[in-house]
Design a protein that fits this description.
- The protein is an alpha/beta fold.
- It contains 26 helices and twelve strands.
- A hairpin with a 3-residue loop joins strand 2 and strand 3.
- Helix 12 packs antiparallel against helix 14, helix 15 packs antiparallel against helix 16 and helix 21 packs across helix 24.
Length: 734
């Protein structure tokens, strides 16, 4: 790690008071050494990574990191803050901040070193030494794993010896060397660690399989399944970047395993790829832990075992709890089951992953479950809605009264083609509520939740409970399946549980509740909401448009945005939507187009306020905004949220209110400017969008222009833009 961190990249008196300022201060040191070529572009990448998940860890550690095309070589900067900086950790601010910069194409060797640092951070002796060291060179040497200098004979050098030794390669199961430990203890029969240098040599690899493949070298005792051997766990860790949290989670699980007397072998699925656990190691395991924020690759290998599925930070902060949980599941006989196709319930790779761990709040879990259903429903909304809208455009608004095209279809008549598109779209729309309910249940209970979820959603349509009924049916179905899965089942019956027993019992329970208990009240609530929307006029309609505009621009495609979007599409998901419902749909789509279009306009009008990467993103934002893809503004919001998001919300509110006041209507749930022919009052609709875009762009330009230039900011880069050191300015007021 000698070329990755030097004394020039260490700040033992970091004065920043926010995580953004801390990242900037450390990144400026990288720029000064030529390790980063574009300060603003790099910070935007850091902010985008931070937006995925906070990088604060328990124990006073902040570890912002990213891959970036603006990084010339893998670099690590370290800062120590006396006051502490909030990086989102549950236990409070961080005083040790590590900024990791990896090139977009970093090689495996460098990623190995970075992952080694991540493992060292789980060593209390290492972090204690960093808090006591009083010399930048000594701190850099400590992080590299070298013995720090002893110029003043201080005790900091002595404190550093233990972690420095831990960072060297050894055959005794080191925690932080360049070859990560794979088992919870050296020489264990389950996951014994081979001599240093064996295996693949990548930090992403697991060393146990190298020994396991040698046959007797593993020492796995097939007969040793009783109380004479420790409990055995295999685990998989992975995070979005695959540089830090992946390996910290692995180290935490291994440490917790040692303390609990449990053998733990971890497969780290990081940036440099991964080496699969040996099948014999998996077969010998008594339980499985998945700690991940991205889908686990080849998850079906672990089917048929007690499994705990959670986020990567849970493994870092609550490793002992996860081990206790998986042991409890093993004692109760709870396992993931396979179906006849060989796929697994809850263990196969799928777009919907299990909602967080037991430590997460109910609100977080509920949001994840609902978003699971929405993510699967949106394609049906887009396809069905656009087909219906095209049917009206071709065949006229009376096309909904046309006979079935099975009975009457004339190839040469436009009305027949319009009726065909309308009827196909109607069928697609008919799946909305069942799909919503089915995949909410899937998000809660994996594949066993699909059947009762779809059944409950279909019943919701039957009793006219609509989307509210679908939401309730999905949550009930998932809860019923989870309750059934907690019942201890004899081993002989486990094979038929996911195929026969769970679908049968859960569907019966959900059907009874929807038909007899809660269906009628929900249907009444749905009707009341529909009547209220139909009665909106004047100021009430304008206020609703402004509110929906604010929601659409708050998180740019996130949960709040989706709530507003689904609220609008629910109104037009019928053959004959009301005028009020079509006005709401128009306002929602118009507001959702504002942020990316405004960012594109701002980068065009005042390009010098944006860095080169942002100006390039601005070009793409024209197309994304015109296509009603709000996510086109995310790079700008991630880099400068305090200016971009409020400005976007103001513009979105203006557009939503104007659209409602103009009486613009829309039958299509998507399409942007490409469905203007399907919009009622199209000219005024475009005026509303233009007004919001101008308001947001103007606010962004004004707010960015208030930043106070750094002294000497008159230098320019090779492309004529302000040099990186002069381009970002301290805000007058954040």
């Amino acid at each position: 790690m000698s070329d990755m961190i030097t004394a020039d990249l260490v700040d033992l008196d970091l004065s920043a008071d926010t995580k953004e300022a801390a990242a900037r201060a450390l990144a400026e040191r990288m720029v000064a050494l030529g390790r980063v070529t574009d300060l603003e572009g790099f910070l935007a990448d850091v902010a985008a990574r931070e937006a995925q998940m906070p990088t604060g860890l328990d124990g006073g550690i902040g570890i912002p990191h990213c891959r970036s095309e603006h990084v010339t070589e893998p670099t690590l900067a370290f800062g120590r803050s006396a006051a502490g900086i909030d990086f989102g950790a549950a236990d409070g601010p961080a005083d040790l901040i590590f900024l990791i910069a990896a090139p977009a194409g970093a090689d495996d060797a460098h990623l190995t070193i970075l992952s080694s640092l991540a493992r060292q951070l789980m060593n209390a002796e290492f972090t204690d030494a960093l808090r006591s060291v009083d010399d930048a060179s000594a701190a850099a040497a400590l992080i590299r794993g070298d013995e720090p200098p002893t110029a003043d004979g201080s005790t900091a050098a002595d404190a550093a010896k233990a972690p420095a030794a831990a960072g060297s390669s050894s055959a005794s199961g080191s925690e932080s060397g360049s070859e990560p430990a794979s088992g919870s203890g050296s020489g264990s029969e389950f996951g014994s660690e081979p001599a240093s240098g064996s295996g693949s040599g990548s930090a992403d690899s697991v060393t146990a399989p190298a020994a396991a493949s040698a046959g007797a070298a593993t020492g796995i005792d097939d007969a040793g399944t009783g109380a004479d051997r420790p409990f055995r766990i295999v685990a998989v860790t992975s995070c979005p970047t695959g540089i830090a949290h992946t390996y910290m989670a692995a180290e935490s699980l291994e440490n917790a395993g040692r303390e609990a007397g449990v053998e733990v072998v971890v497969e780290t699925q990081g940036s440099a790829g991964f080496t699969r656990l040996d099948p014999a190691v998996i077969a010998a395991a008594d339980g499985v832990i998945f700690a991940h924020d991205v889908p686990v690759r080849e998850k079906d290998r672990f089917a048929g075992k007690p499994t705990v599925d959670t986020g990567v930070k849970a493994a870092i902060n609550r490793a002992a709890d996860l081990i206790t949980e998986v042991r409890g599941k093993a004692e109760r006989g709870e396992v993931t089951a396979t179906d006849g196709s060989g796929a697994t319930d809850g263990s196969g790779t799928s777009p919907v992953e299990r909602a967080g761990g037991p430590g997460e709040g109910y609100g977080t879990k509920l949001r994840t479950w609902l978003m699971s259903g929405v993510s699967y429903m949106v394609p049906f909304v887009a396809a069905g809605g656009l087909l219906i809208a095209l049917g009206f455009a071709i065949g006229g608004y009376e096309i909904n009264e046309a006979p079935s095209v099975m009975d009457h279809f004339v190839w040469t008549q436009a009305a027949s083609w319009g009726a065909l598109l309308f009827q196909i779209g109607g069928v697609a729309f008919g799946f909305l509520v069942p799909v919503l309910a089915g995949y909410i249940a899937y998000g809660m209970a994996d594949r066993p939740g699909l059947v009762p979820g779809f059944v409950g959603g279909a019943i919701s349509l039957t009793i006219s409970a609509g989307f509210l009924g679908g939401l309730a049916a999905g949550l009930i179905a998932g809860g019923v399946v989870l309750a059934i899965q907690k019942v201890r089942i004899p081993a002989a019956l486990r094979g038929i549980m996911p195929v026969v027993v769970i679908p049968l019992i859960s569907s019966a329970v959900v059907g009874f509740l929807m038909f007899v208990v809660i269906g009628k009240p929900i249907a009444s609530a749905q009707k009341a909401m529909t009547d209220w929307l139909n009665g909106l006029t004047g100021a009430n309609a304008i206020l609703l448009g402004a509110l929906l505009g604010l929601m659409m621009c708050f998180d740019l495609g996130g949960p709040v945005n989706k709530v507003a979007y689904i609220f609008a599409t629910a109104g037009i998901a019928v053959a004959n939507p009301s005028d009020s419902a079509m006005k709401i749909m128009a306002a929602v789509m118009a507001a959702g187009m504002v942020p990316p279009l405004a960012m594109a306009l701002a980068t065009t009008v005042r390009g010098k306020l944006f860095n080169r990467t942002e100006r390039e993103n601005g070009k793409a934002a024209w197309v994304l905004g015109a296509s009603f893809i709000s996510e086109g503004a995310i790079p700008f919001a991630a880099a400068d949220p305090l200016r971009v998001i409020p400005a976007s919300m103001v513009g979105g509110a203006v557009t939503g209110a104007l659209s409602m006041s103009f009486g613009a209507t829309l039958r299509a749930p998507h399409g942007g400017i490409f469905v203007v022919p399907l919009i009622g009052n199209p000219f005024l609709y475009l005026v509303a969008i233009a007004a919001g875009v101008c308001v947001t762009a103007a606010l962004v330009i004004v707010l960015k222009g208030l930043r106070k230039p750094v002294t000497g900011a008159d230098t320019a880069g090779p492309d004529g833009t302000p040099a990186p050191s002069a381009r970002e300015e301290q805000p007058v007021a954040a």
